[in-house]
Amino acid sequence: MLFTANFLSAQSHPGWWTYASPEATALVGIDWHALRASPFADAVRDELGPEGLGFPGLDCIDQATQILVSSPALLAVATGSFAAPTLGQQATAKGFRAALFKNVNLWIAPHPSSLSIALVSPQIILLGSHKTLEEAIDRATDLAAQEGETARATKRKYSPLLARAAQFAHNTDLWVVSNRLPDPLASRFIPLEVETRGFEGWVSAQNGLRLEGALLASSKEEALVMAEHLRGTFSSLTSLAHGIEIRVDGDEVGLSLTATAEQFNASLKNAPAPPPPAEVASISSPTPAVPSPPQEEKPKQPQVIRIVGLDQGPVEIPFPDSSEHQQ
Q: Considering 14, 70, 81, 114, which has the largest number of Cβ atoms within 10 A of its Cβ?
């Protein structure tokens, strides 16, 4: 029954999700059409971009509507409107090299840190390393050639995470499902320093802010410790974070928050500004001492031996000059 439920749930997710690797251990879904106009846009763009996951800085990719990212073999699937001439022109201008694999247009990134691009259709592109893109195309085209559409649906292997994520696909702006934390992909979007056996959660910034999350601990005792740790973490953040409800149910720690648009906007205005960069103390060389003007050397007074108490009065006898003796 569990297998059947997972299978049916997998069928409820969008068809383009199936490009994700069956071995995926973390998935991130982004409604970029909605988030692009939200206060989270810059933060998400930074995580995806050249300094983050390595998405190419192309305008046509920034205009995508939906994005699914899977790992550990990092692969992103994006939907939108991708005209081949426009995509090719923008990619070539960034130094990408055009290629072809099984009749699919590729643009190979000039640097290993950037993701290459595959244009599967005018509505779907894939982002990943050259090898990862070819493997994803292989999975799709080989099954299409061997089986009819109905038979393929029963034979294709899916990541179990797709079934868990299907419930978040239609009414959230960003969701994360992972087999563990920390995770190289999931931890980029979940700023929690905890170790878990699993995580799933979502955020919506439409008409306020709503979030839900569930962290799976190894035991009930560990869940209680984790909950206390999270309470301490949230207490040091913005006032909005203080409203996150934390509950423990067996070995699961649940998180939830609902804030109105007014509360959300107020928290953004009251958020403490980032501290100014610390001034680097300049190591200045010590101020050179100003030499005192040379003083005139006073003429040496002749040294004498003065004898007093004589009948004829005091008598002074010149003391021999030591320099004369040295000569």
A: 70
Dihedral sign for Cα atoms in the order 240, 173, 33, 43: positive
Please state the domain extents for the chain: 15-159
Task: Enumerate the H helices of 240-312 as residue ranges.
Answer: 261-270
Phi, psi of 107 (to 5 degrees): -130, 115
Q: Which two tokens stand for residue 248?
A: 């423990």
Cβ–Cβ < 8 Å for 215, 196: yes
Encoding tokens for residue 194?
A: 């905890």
Tell me the C-alpha distance between 232 and 226, whole Å: 10
CB atoms within 10 A of CB 162: 25
| Predicted TM-score (pTM) above 0.90 | no
Element spanning 259, H or E: strand 252-259
Closest CA to 144 of 153, 131, 157: 153
Instruction: Say if residue 294 is preceded by a cis peptide, omega within 30 of 0.
Output: no
Distance, CA of 310 to CA of 36 (rounded, Å) = 114
Task: Tell me how far apart the alpha carbons of residues 319 and 155 are, in angstroms, rounded to a whole number.
Answer: 122
Question: Can you tell me the distance from the alpha carbon of 128 to that of 54, in angstroms, rounded to the nearest whole number?
Answer: 9
| 166-217 tens-digit pLDDT | 988 778 999 999 999 999 999 999 989 899 999 999 999 988 999 999 999 9
Running DSSP on this structure, what letter comes out for residue 38? Answer: S
Beta-bridge partner residues of 157: none
**Token couple for 277:** 């960069």
